[in-house]
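mind reviewing this fold:
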Amino acid sequence: MSTLRAYLTMLIIMFFSGICSGDEVSVDADWLIVRSVLDQFDKISLSTLPDFLPGELAQDLWIAAVVDCQDAISPLFRHPSSRKLIFLLMSEFGRGNENVDLGILLGLGRYAVPQRSANAGLIGGGLLNTQDDDYRSRQLLVAECQSRLFIEHPDRLDRYIYFLASMQLLSKSAYSHYKQCAADRIASPDYWWHARNLIVLRRFAGYTSEADTDPASLHREFVTWMVRVSEFNIEVLEPIPAKPFRDWSGGSTVPIDVWKEIWDWIPGAK
């Protein structure tokens, strides 16, 4: 009887404690939502899929898996706490679970890569569907999450860069294109889009940021760095990685030309 009384007392304390600290309860609830998405990535288990072979069953398996990843993430953007949920989700990238890492990037699709459209193919371009405010805000939110994460964790940035290289989204032409971007763009409403691209390009060129760099205040550095970008010796990874991460245990993934087709028709991918 005393054990039951102690248990009930503990429940009452937890209940009233939750009322007095609503923010903590909210964070826990938000984390449970994100946790369920991560669990779905584990179930999808991208690392167990066979090598991608066009025209084979593997192609259908990969396409279905990408759709499943996208479906897992989409509800987060429609949730009242979408900003917090996307930050929590992105913070899980690079923590050691390869299925989660690839699931996040493929599930976010065009939101997560510095490429403006299927036929642009160059880092530094404008935002997709600029007439679509909802889509635009999602792109900027993901770019902000990535910018803050990558400044704090360079090792996760390196992992992301390797993924971009495997997707053929890093090249010397990307730099020449990006140089054409006006320096004042970094002060525009598109700030986070350009800040993320700057952080990626600078790291790819061999430059690092201090851990205490404020990702929200890169204006001056953007101008200075862009003026000198043509001086950098850019070396593209050769051959192009067949796998998304150096330590990827699964098969080779879908090539970029097929990804473009997938992202063109998956609902919410544009």
